[in-house]
Amino acid sequence: MDWFVAPEYETSRLVFQRALAGVYLVAFLTAALQFRALLGERGLLPVPRFVARVPFKAAPSLFQLHYSDRFFAGCAWAGCAVSAALLAGVDSLVPLWAALLLWLVPWLLYLSIVNVGQTWYSFGWESLLLEAGFAAVWLGNDEVAPPVVVLFLLRWILFRVEFGAGLIKMRGDECWRKLTCLDHHHETQPMPGPLSWFFHHLPKPLHRVEVAANHVTQLVVPFLLFTAQPVATAAAALMIVTQLWLVLSGNFAWLNWITIVLALPAVAFPADPPDRPGAPLWYEGTVLVVAALLVGLSYHPVANMISRRQVMNRSFDPLHLVNTYGAFGSVSRVRHEVVIEGTLDEAPREDSDWRAYEFKGKPGDPRRWPRPFAPYHLRLDWLMWFAALSPSYAGSWFGTLMERLLENDRATLRLLRRSPFPPDEPPRFVRARLFRYRYTTWRELRETGACWERTFVREYLPPTRLAGGAHRP
Fold first, then answer.
1. Cα 190 from Cα 222, distance rounded (Å)
2. Could you count the other beta carbons within 10 Å of the beta carbon of residue 381?
3. Residue 414 vs residues 33, 224, 335, 397: alpha-carbon distances, Å
4. Over the stretch 410-450, which tens digit does the pLDDT of each residue have?
């Protein structure tokens, strides 16, 4: 069937597949390096405890069948290896059927991780990677030209990402409608980047232009993805530029990068399409059945998107095949941070030698400038931002985190930038305090060298020690 394939998108498919493999690689690397402290057998939210109470049907995962830290590590590193192989183009060296199976492997492995990841994997870009990854399975390799219906499905995902995000903003915080949200966002976003301070201090009229341009990109431009070339390419390019602007202004894990990746199949790269034989009948039939399934599953995400009660970042099936997305329906006006401290004193007082733990990404020391981390995802740092919004966000894991710090737990300390205590001398007490953070002015930056100014708000967790007063070396 000539209508089934679009040979002119050969280069688009190739670039998309390699870029998607790169995002998969980062996602699996993040899992491999952080899971033990977050989800392991002695993690803050252990997988064995989760699978004991949640049935397979509700959260399909290989770890429902068996879990050990060694098995999880093996799956995560296997995901890294397969992703690296796909990034190198191994799928072009094998038969079509083998290429499909090869692309199915990282999707299955990452689905297994996300479905037991609990709050650590509750971010929208987890489902977005799974949805894009499942659609990518059916793109084929060099044996066939790219299927038109799969290219359409990828544009459909991008449309829902952008349009859904635009709608949630217009329905949510009034500052989006007044074009004033960026007066606060760069300062209060979950994890600022090295340039966020400068973005915050841009002239307010420019902030208004940024917000207006964002509305156009998310509410108007997505419809152009389904038009003829070169308009669709121009629409995708505008989305890519907007996402790169967001990359510069903050650390949003791989959210911006996966959105850029999804825009690539809509770009018509100049190239002479090679002659390909017709697609095998079994392949055409499979792709059409999968496409029909995904279109049918789009009902609930679309109903949510057009609803006045639209919710952000929700999956409507346990396989995360078709989801709803959105970000920053509301913008915080004030930034709060939880600062965790410990002391070696036997009877801690306010004037004791309290030493602060430093996190890798989240603000702590006012003089320490934010670092670039995206697309790598610092999961604990992100959840600490939510913990500062309300203790209810951290109720399931914060107490265990403090216990692990009292134990000088090696896996937990690896998640941090610096512990103020040597490995053989853990603190006797730890506490948490809530501070209000704000960016310094240009004058304050010149005088103090600090990018943040902070003010004590209240006690978040009083001084606490291990049960029974045990002090473990």
1. 26
2. 21
3. 9, 46, 26, 17
4. 999 999 999 999 999 999 999 999 999 999 999 999 999 99
